[in-house]
Design goal:
Elements lengths: L13 H8 L4 E6 L6 H14 L4 E5 H4 L11 H19 L4 E5 L5 H11 L3 E7 L2 H7 L4 H6 L21 E4 L5 H16 L7
Parallel strand pairs: 1-3, 1-4, 2-3, 4-5
Helix pairs in contact: 2-8, 4-5
Bound molecules: adenosine-5'-diphosphate and magnesium ion (MG).
Organism: Luteolibacter yonseiensis
Catalytic activity: adenosine 5'-phosphosulfate + ATP = 3'-phosphoadenylyl sulfate + ADP + H(+)
InterPro entries: APS, APS_kinase_dom, P-loop_NTPase, Sulf_AdTrans/APS_kinase
Length: 201
Amino acid sequence: MSNIHPEFHRFLHRQDKENLLGQRGIVVWLCGLSGSGKSTIANAAERVLHQQGRFTTILDGDNLRTGLNSNLGFSDDDRLENIRRISEVAKVFVSQGIITFVSAITPRGELRDLARGLLGNDLFEVYVKASYEACEQRDVKGLYAKAARGEIAHFTGKDGSFEPPNNPDLVLDTEKSSIEDAAFELLEAIRGKISAHRPLV
Ligand SMILES: Nc1ncnc2c1ncn2[C@@H]1O[C@H](COP(=O)(O)OP(=O)(O)O)[C@@H](O)[C@H]1O
Ligand SMILES: [Mg+2]
C-alpha cells in the first residue's frame, strides 16, 4: 500500500467535465427485488435524457455479473463486493459528470450504506417497489419459478433477505404506476440536480 501514490491533482476537475457536458453528474441508484422494474425504468429514463442531449450510462447488476463481477455469487460477502465494485465504477463515472444509473437489487441496508459511504451526496437512492408476489407473477426471467422449485440458493425475498430502504430519496411503486409514469417521476425528481452550474460559453 505504501508504494502506491495516487496523483489526483494531475486530473482535470470534475467541473471542467461538467461544463463541457453542460450537465452535472449524479448516481441514480435503483434498488428493489428482481423483476421490480429497475432495468426497465433505468432504460426508459436514460432514453429520455439522451434525447434531451444528456450524457448518461447504466451500470446494470445483471450485465456486470457477466464481466467485471463474473467471479461473484450471491453470498453476503459476494453481494457486498458486487456493490463495492459497482459503487467504485459509478464514482469514476460521476466524477466525469456523467448521469449514471445503477440497477442492482442492493437488498440490505449494509450494502446501501457502503454505496452511500463511497458516493456521498452524489447518490440518489430510488426504491423500486413491488411485492414479491407481483414480481413472481411477472417472472420476467423465470427466476421465481426456479426459486419456488428450490433451484436457486439465496434468492432475494425468499431465503435471501430483502430489507426495504429506510429513507430513500424516491419510491417508485411499479404496481401502481406505469413504466412511463415511473420514469417521468424519476426524471422530475432529478431535474434540478443534473442541470448545469452555469450556461455554457
Ligand atoms: N411500472 C413499471 N415499471 C417498471 N417495470 C414494470 C412496470 N410495470 C410492469 N413492469 C414490468 O416489470 C418487469 C420488470 O423487469 P426488469 O426491469 O428486468 O426488473 P429488474 O431489473 O428490477 O430485475 C418488466 O417486464 C416490465 O415490463
Ligand atoms: Mg435488471
